[in-house]
Each structure stands twice: as structure tokens, then as C-alpha cells.
Amino acid sequence: xxxxxxxxxxxxxxxxxxxxxxxxxxxDLLARWQTxxxxxxxxxELEAGFSxxxxxxxxxxxxxxxxxxxxxxxxxxxxxxxxxxxxxRGARSALATALQHGCRFAxxxxxxxxxGSRFIYDxxxxxxxxxxxxxxAALLRQHGIAVFAESEIERLRDxxx
Length: 161
Ligand code: SF4
Prior knowledge:
2-thiour_desulf
């Protein structure tokens, strides 16, 4: 069977982001992989129980979702609400989906406190990004799943068996 790829639902055109938008990735590879039935969609935040739209959230005082998973950092909405437990739940749900479908690769929306894999925002809600990864990307990588940002789709193609 073809290698399956876990993909952020907003990259597939679903309007599930916090602000009600999608982040549609118009790329021939995505269309091809859909035809080949390789794509397994996930939106960790919706799976955690959030609705759309929702307040923006950022990881505070850490560059990696690993620190959230180990209890050393939190995910907080711009309202001040601590949503760490929900972000962890979303990450576990995405991991369960990946394992269930045998996905060893993921293509996730960069910058998100869940799906970011190369950069995230710094927790001050000032639009400042830094190198880092979100909670779902961290948990997937802890379980040996290779996570790529949408900007790396061609690198993922080159690595796919
Ligand atoms: Fe997209 Fe991931 Fe945010 Fe869901 S959690 S809207 S899939 S970036």
C-alpha cells in the first residue's frame, strides 16, 4: 500500500482555523496524493472540542510543544484562559488518527500552536514568531512520525516511499 500522510485539515481547504478561515494549499502534489488516497485529514483543535471561530492561542515561555507535554509550559488564549489540557487532548487525538491509519509522515500548517513544525508565535500575541513547534507536531515526532511544514511539501515527496 501507498504511504499515508496525516494532513492539517485547514491545508485541505476546510475553514477550521481559529479565525474561521482555511489555509488552502494549492499544490499539484496534494491533489495527486488525494487521488492516490494517501491523505488522512486531522484538525487537532476541533478534535479537542474547540469550535470555529475561537480565540487565538499561543504557547508561552517555550519554543516547543514538548515543554507543554512535559508540564513545563502552557498554551494560553489571548483572553488569558489556560487551554493546555485541550491542546494536549487534540495532540493525542491526532496521534491516534495517525497510528490508526499507519501514517509515518505528516504535513502540518506551520505557525500553529498545535500544528506548527518550524515556527510558532512567542506567546505575547504581538505577531512575533520564533523557531519552534506546536503541541501536536511535538507529540507526533515523539512517536517517530516525520512532520513537515507546508513549505516543505516537495521535500516530503522526495522522502515518501
Ligand atoms: Fe489547521 Fe492545525 Fe489549526 Fe486545525 S489545529 S486549524 S488543522 S493549524
